[in-house]
Amino acid sequence: MASRKEGTGSSAASSSSTTGAAGKGKGKGGSGDSAVKQVQIDGLVVLKIIKHYQEEGQGTEVVQGVLLGLVVEDRLEITNCFPFPQHTEDDADFDEVQYQMEMMRSLRHVNIDHLHVGWYQSTYYGSFVTRALLDSQFSYQHAIEESVVLIYDPIKTAQGSLSLKAYRLTPKLMEVCKEKDFSPEALKKGNITFEHMFEEVPIVIKNSHLINVLMWELEKKSAVADKHELLSLASSNHLGKTLQLLMDRVDEMSQDIVKYNTYMRNTSKQQQQKHQYQQRRQQENMQRQSRGEPPLPEEDLSKLFKPHQPPARMDSLLIAGSQINTYCQNIKEFTAQNLGKLFMAQALQEYNN
Amino acid sequence: MSRFFTTGSDSESESSLSGEELVTKPVGGNYGKQPLLLSEDEEDTKRVVRSAKDKRFEELTNLIRTIRNAMKIRDVTKCLEEFELLGKAYGKAKSIVDKEGVPRFYIRILADLEDYLNELWEDKEGKKKMNKNNAKALSTLRQKIRKYNRDFESHITNYKQNPEQSADEDAEKNEEDSEGSSDEDEDDDGVTAAAFLKKKSEVPSGESRKFLKKEDEDEDSEDSEDSEAWDTSSTSSDSDSEEEEGKQTVLASRFLKKAPTTEEDKKAAEKKREDKAKKKHDRKSRRPDEEEEDNEGGEWERVRGGVPLVKEKPKMFAKGTEITHAVVIKKLNEILQARGKKGTDRAAQIELLQLLVQIASENNLGEGVIVKIKFNIIASLYDYNPNLATYMKPEMWQKCLDCINELMDILFANPNIFVGENILEESENLHNADQPLRVRGCILTLVERMDEEFTKIMQNTDPHSQEYVEHLKDEAQVCAIIERVQRYLEEKGTTEEICRVYLRRILHTYYKFDYKAHQRQLTPPEGSSKSEQDQAENEGEDSAVLMERLCKYIYAKDRTDRIRTCAILCHIYHHALHSRWYQARDLMLMSHLQDNIQHADPPVQILYNRTMVQLGICAFRQGLTKDAHNALLDIQSSGRAKELLGQGLLLRSLQERNQEQEKVERRRQVPFHLHINLELLECVYLVSAMLLEIPYMAAHESDARRRMISKQFHHQLRVGERQPLLGPPESMREHVVAASKAMKMGDWKTCHSFIINEKMNGKVWDLFPEADKVRTMLVRKIQEESLRTYLFTYSSVYDSISMETLSDMFELDLPTVHSIISKMIINEELMASLDQPTQTVVMHRTEPTAQQNLALQLAEKLGSLVENNERVFDHKQGTYGGYFRGECSHPLFALRILAPFLPLHWLSPPPLPISLLQTRKTATGKMRATCAEVATASSSLRRPTDGLISVPSALDHSPFRSNHTALKVCH
Asked: What ipTM was reported for this prediction?
């Protein structure tokens, strides 16, 4: 998956030479730490993403697609999108880059914005923070500075509230990713914590006036559909699922910490040995000096004590920080909403009695 | 070997044994003695076969001759070449040389060659004259031969000391050897033949030397033949005569030595020839007599194709011989001596023995002798198959059975015959009628062997063929014989023997279901009208009583552990087979066999496995699923039930074991009619596992540390789940899996229909002797366990449930439902109480809900996470920088993970004071508290699932009750 993303990213790079200039201008005008302050999504895009998931995604499978649009001042306007075709086993030699180029060319012919500004992905119970996402978003952002990733949560949406979020990597994380060094030291230097990995960009859904007018008209004509989903109290399933996922991540985190712990112990042990060795060598040299003998030749300490490979921290960072954080936020939101609902129900009950 | 030849040994070789025999006569070996004996027409017989020895030696002699020739013409180069070849040829002949000793002619050439070379070496002038090649070859050859001769030093010195003698011996020895090897058929009379040959060989050696050239043509072909033989075999005589150096003396001396005698020799030879002819004639005339003498009337037949079968037949007694005990016994011993020897025809031997019996009985030699011979007949019948793996042919088997029966008849008829292994050959009393007859031999061993043969026959017959049925019919005979032996030994045998025969009897009884006894049990005895006698009679037939009696005797008297172990196992098996579960179990437990069965030999272990399986099946029939499961667990969980029960080999392990092992394992297989149905076994296991596991699973649905009762059952469930398309069940396993699924939902009717239906009846249940009883038991079990499962699974959605409803749902009567629920409550499996007046079960709802469970687990995990994290923090405490510094190691990090739950605190009055100053320890404690809060929160969230109506009560109760829970958790 990551490779596919990278491919897309590089292909997008060539096609976005024109946006590059505009983006740069934008960046200078902006606050400096981020090129995009706001994402404005066309209603069409939202509908297309939802439709895409409903047609092709099910269960834990995710759907992905390309976002098209342009940057206006510090606002990224997403005006259109198209899905990636579902990957199947039999057409392994299917050229996605070719497909994307082809798609964009065709869209340009019908006068649609054909500039690549990011990608979208559906998610299963909010578990989208993965290494793959990080890698592909990095390559996107590396090639097209202003690109975002839209995360669509179909399950939450089914419960009555549209859940669509736009994320970007923070400049700090971009730098670290550019270095490709995920050792503890590098992360420390980059001052990366789980809070500073992704930034959420506010979303505005905008429809053209014509469509608004149409909506009004439709609303008048058709009876108002009751929105029962929002008030549904049966939601323990959702909570349970999220807790389960959260638990899994905590397990992973635990393992990771144990691994890190062992690494630390090993390193410090080695450090001690090294120290001892050096001391012994020093003493011997002193003795030799007093005896008038030449000192022992210096030996390469790194050869004697091979430093242990420090475990890569990026995965744990992703798990710990972002994914657990996301889950927690989900639960928080969810429980808050549900408590509200419960009190409402109680009030209703009392009123009825 | 044969009497015939023994008598004819002095007349040795005459025309009668010409023909084929001549063909086999090797060429190299006949140093002139042949022509003496052969008549004219046989002279140009083809010589086809030569022994390896002759071939090699001929090769050597040829080479030697060339070397000698080369020596004569002083061609040292040629000598060198030939010498090298000779060395090689000698190497090839090594194996023969090892056997025969170094041939003299070889030593001779080595010695001569060395002398010759030394001579040449000394001869300076000759050397000068020599051409370059020759000179070079000379030095090489000299060195070589020096080196080579070092190995033969002793031989050469020996030769040099008395060359003539060794030469003589050489010739003679060769002759002897070749003679010995040439007529193998006559090796019995080797001594006389050799002696004779020696005499003969002296004649031609003289003759050939002296008369070779002078004798005219009519001096028979034998001489030319002779000379030819000499030519080819050793240093030829003509070369001798021409030879000038070295050898001269040797030959001369030999020549001289023989010379004076030759005249006489020749006469003697002629005389001998005449003698022979006379003897031959005698023989011829004698033969018809012999033929007449053959008392069995067996015609003297020519040896045909080397089949000794017929040849042996006439070997009975000479006519007129008074057939006495001594003669018969002698004959018997004679026959027996051939037993086990390589060339013996076993079939013929059996025939002979039977003939002997006939003679013995015809001549009224008494039962002792007949018994003795019979023993031997049976023994030779067993011996008939040289291979342990092959089994007896049906006719042999039948013969064997008959023979044993006859033997038993005799033994029963003559109580004064004592048979025993411990009777020595010397102390046997076969004919003295005054004293009790004593015969060596063990009837028990014979019967045991017979039983083994029977097993072997059954093992080697295709169990699905008519043949198998035919063989199986013999089982009755085998049993009858064993019974007879038992009766016999009960009178005469030692306790040890009785134990052994009892075990045989038990082994033939334990696996048979006693239908008669079963029937009798079903129909209670018609009042007590039956007389005591009748009952006693019945008891005799009842296998249970029989087993009891036999086994008890063995328990009491046996001193070898193995017989007792086997008897116990068989006894248990028999109990289990007849559904006497408690007896079977008690016996098994009392015997402590489980502790040390692994030290037993494989057949006993197989018996043990069979017993365990039968025990398990018995427990199942009694409705004791747990016991059934435990008994079958070991066998079934290994997945090698087939192998463990000795009912077949697994293909998988074929590569692991070699041929030998496989043969051994094959021999251990249990015959097909003793097999336990593997499908039945598996089905019983799976169904009992289902009855145990499904309620257990339901009870521990959310328990993270739930363990499995039966791995195999879970495996089957998983296999069932993996099926992409679920059709109606076909195999037994699929039926059980489908039934398990139904049971999980508490749907006992579907479960019932999956477990008991036409297919399953045919496959499994009808195999039980009391199928209907088992089925009723099974239905009842299914109902009960389904009820339990239902209560476990759905208790959380009920506030209370009427027992009557339950009783209707599961078609169980109220007391049963009551007892089941009471049991569950007592075992703390179900948090509820019984409301007597309304006959309802009131749920207490103290079990945590799914969410609460999850929250609790999460809290636990977070706890360990924090601990680990603290360790990291302890570790580096400023020394080593890392990612977690100041951020994650801080206790607040853990709280941050739980941040989403924090807003819930407004439900509980005191908000959590969180400050950065808190020590880590308290923070951890706090975090635990927070986790408890999570549990609280989720408990309050649980209720809404039930619908709006129940909300108020949930809200009323949950904070307080859950606080209670939380407290529990905190502690």
From this structure: 0.71
